[in-house]
Amino acid sequence: MENKFFKVSALAAAMVGAIAATPVLASEANAVGDGYVEAVDNFIHDATFTGAAVVDTRYRGRANADGDIETRLNYSSYNLMMNFNSGYHKDTVGIDLGGYFSGDIYNDSIEDADGNKLCNEISICQSGDWTDGSSNFKVTTAAIKLKLGEKTDAQVGFIQGGVGTIGNVWSFVPGTYRGFKVSTTLDNGMTLGYMGTDDHSAPWLINSEDATEPWYNQQFSYLHSVGLNGSVGDLTYGVGIGQALDVNYGTDDQDNFSYKIDTSYAVNDSIKVGYNMYGVDDDEMYNGFAAHHGLSLNWSLTDKVSWLSQVQYTQLDADAGMGEFAPRTMARYGSNQGGFYWWDALSDWNMPGEVAWYNRLSYDTGTGWGFNLGFGYGTGADESVAGFSYESEYAINGDITYSVSSGALKGTLFKLHATQLERDPFDGKEDRDEQDLRFIVIAPFSFF
């Protein structure tokens, strides 16, 4: 099979070569004329070259059959991310390039019979489950961008999602779609977008073909979605509908439909409420339609204290083959993404019929220090066909953060995160209590 990394690298090299061949330091006496000089100035001088260095150190354990916590992840890994975004030549065409280096500083996670470590999804993995610990570079973005008039933009190549029901799979960098997207601003201020793609790779995989495990196996011929975003007074909204053609999980082909509704209403300057729905019609995995429905409250209690409260309901047939709901256009893990509430609490809170409620208090000192304390509880689930299924679950999590506000390290973030997750499984199901302790350093930089 043709190597996608070669295709991405070749496209990126061609784009860089085109830039390098341009006489950036052209003088006013350039034989092409002043118009050429102005065009080059717009292309280069409007460009940005940014990035970030990340070090992620983590311990994550899971209960065994006796209820004792055993190590699954124990590592320190790095990412060095870089993104170049040009200006527009003649206010029409430009390029976007992005990628990242990654590797392990140390890795004492569980390993397979060949000594490969469990994939931590921060450094590049050689399969869906395992990594050999080698350092790698991945091109995440290599695209041509276009201005098609005053109100319409387009991008084609290796890109990210964000249109309708097509979202992004995130590590510290987003996953990569091969395709195109176009958006236009309508006269009433609404934004209408369309995206189409025939391939996606998770950020920790060079190629989608690298994930060979059966639980990762998924093929499709084309995924597309249309999205509409706008606002009416204090109400902001986004809706989307998508379709995945010829989806194959290893048996027969089928077409999936996906739907998204995202709303937020500002009650006043301090309070916002919202409703969110992400649903997928998938006969093989869900026996038809399944969805997450969510209600949210964001309340700024003072200028330093805020409260987040979110309730999520999982609509899913208890006999569905997947056993849990995944809010993405196709079910396989890491294969693509949609949208959902994320509480950084280890669980996806996605059992059939489960109602989960999460609350978090945040305190910002105004001096760079921040503190979060959260509690989530889920109950009401029906027993699923999966080997893991919980009558109830709860999690306590918290963060301590510090952001450097001045000096050479301005913008650098230090974050300490911890979670304790407890679950009450149905009889005969796996006990998956978990612990998580994580320290993250993110240092952004910019060349121009």
Give a structural overview.
- With 448 residues, the protein is mostly beta strands.
- It has a single domain, classed as Beta Barrel (Porin).
- The chain is 7% helix and 51% strand.
- The protein contains three helices and 20 strands.
- The strands form two sheets. The protein has an 18-stranded antiparallel beta barrel.
- Strand 12 and strand 13 form a beta hairpin.
- The N terminus is likely disordered.
Task: Present the secondary structure layout.
Elements: H1 4-20, H2 34-45, E1 48-63, E2 69-85, E3 93-107, E4 117-118, E5 130-131, E6 136-147, E7 152-159, E8 176-185, E9 191-201, E10 222-232, E11 235-248, E12 253-266, E13 271-282, H3 283-286, E14 288-300, E15 305-315, E16 355-364, E17 369-379, E18 390-403, E19 413-425, E20 434-446
| Poorly predicted regions | 1-33
What does the largest sheet look like? 18 strands, antiparallel, barrel
The coarse silhouette is globular
H/E order of the elements?
HHEEEEEEEEEEEEEHEEEEEEE
What's the structural domain tally? 1
What structural category arises from helix and sheet content?
Answer: mainly beta
Task: Tell how many strands the DSSP assignment holds.
Answer: 20
What is the fourth-level CATH superfamily? Answer: Porin
pLDDT average, as an integer?
91
Please report which band the strand proportion falls in: under 5%, 5-15%, 15-25%, 25-35%, 35-45% or over 45%.
over 45%
Number of helices: 3
CATH architecture title: Beta Barrel
CATH topology: Porin
